[in-house]
Design goal:
The structure is a single chain. The chain contains eleven helices and 13 strands. With about 300 residues, the chain is an alpha/beta fold. The chain starts with a helix and ends in a 9-residue tail after the last helix.
Length: about 300
């Protein structure tokens, strides 16, 4: 029969990237963690990890086993929590991934209240704009701003955000207001590196769809950097209204080509499975994330 401590050590090593970091996270010695993973491989009679002096990597069997082991540990933790708490109080560590700017603007203010309402929960929040693998990297929930394609992941739509082409009044006064998307080819543009269309910007307007190939003065993986460049009168940016909405309302930025619109994206919470959904995840979905973009 599988030993939960061995499973926890193996999953911790994979998630942390090393035996030393996993030992620190678990409060054990490196030797104890190494022994537990070795005993697990011996019991299964299969190698789960490739070990070298510089790095660890999962074998094919290890990748499959890590996904199932993570689910099993989550279910075991939920069972323990519900059984011991009686009241069904959520406990444990909840790992959440979200886009950097959205996480700072709309999620960060919610965490203190969420923790106060769930005193036995701890949060592990990672903010970045890349698409993480929830199972491989051990996240309970991720927030994604996209139009989701079909996926094995379960998703819940929280809100929508409109993508807006905008610039400062000073830039418009100096360079003129573009009247058509094709005009953007002759304007200074600051481009978000993770934009799905790359440097091909698409709009819908009076004449149907129009595409323009822009030549950015700068590419950046930070929407905040694009926003600041626009506020300083440097050029046109294409950014979501959850980031530039206040600037537009104040008049610090103005929407260019107001008759032409870019796309609208969904803001989704995604998680791996509906089966054995831990209470900590249910609590998050029912409270903090539900109000993440209500304003």
């Amino acid at each position: 029969m599988l030993n939960l401590q061995q499973l926890a050590s193996f999953v911790a090593v994979v998630n942390a990237g090393s035996f030393v970091a996993a030992a620190d996270a678990l409060g054990l010695s490196k030797a104890a963690v190494s022994r537990q993973v070795g005993d697990l491989e011996a019991q299964l009679d299969v190698r789960l990890l490739h070990r070298t002096t510089r790095r660890l990597s999962l074998t094919e069997a290890g990748r499959r086993f890590h996904a199932r082991a993570s689910e099993l540990l989550a279910a075991a933790g939920e069972l323990e929590s519900e059984t011991s708490a009686g009241s069904g109080e959520a406990s444990g560590v909840l790992r959440v991934n979200a886009p950097l700017t959205f996480g700072n603007l709309h999620l960060a203010p919610l965490w203190p209240g969420f923790l106060a309402a769930n005193p036995k929960l701890a949060l592990d929040i990672t903010l970045n704009d890349r698409v993480v693998d929830l199972v491989e990297e051990g996240y309970d929930v991720a927030v994604r701003i996209t139009n989701l394609a079909s996926s094995q992941l379960v998703s819940r739509r929280l809100a929508t955000t409109r993508i807006v082409a905008c610039a400062s009044p000073a830039y418009i006064a100096s360079h003129g207001m573009p009247a058509h998307p094709h005009d953007l080819a002759h304007h200074q543009v600051f481009s978000y590196a993770y934009w799905s269309g790359g440097d091909d910007w698409a709009f819908t307007g009076p004449d149907g769809e129009a595409h323009v190939r822009v030549t950015p003065r700068m590419h950046t993986n930070s929407g905040d950097t694009c926003r600041i460049a626009a506020l300083q009168g440097q050029g046109v940016v294409l950014q979501p209204d959850f980031l530039v909405g206040d600037d537009l309302r104040r008049g610090d930025l103005v929407e260019v080509m107001p008759g032409w619109h870019s796309i609208e994206l969904g803001i989704h919470a995604v998680y791996a499975s509906r089966k054995h959904l831990p209470m900590k995840t249910r609590r998050l979905m029912g409270s903090a994330l539900s109000s993440a973009h209500s304003n």
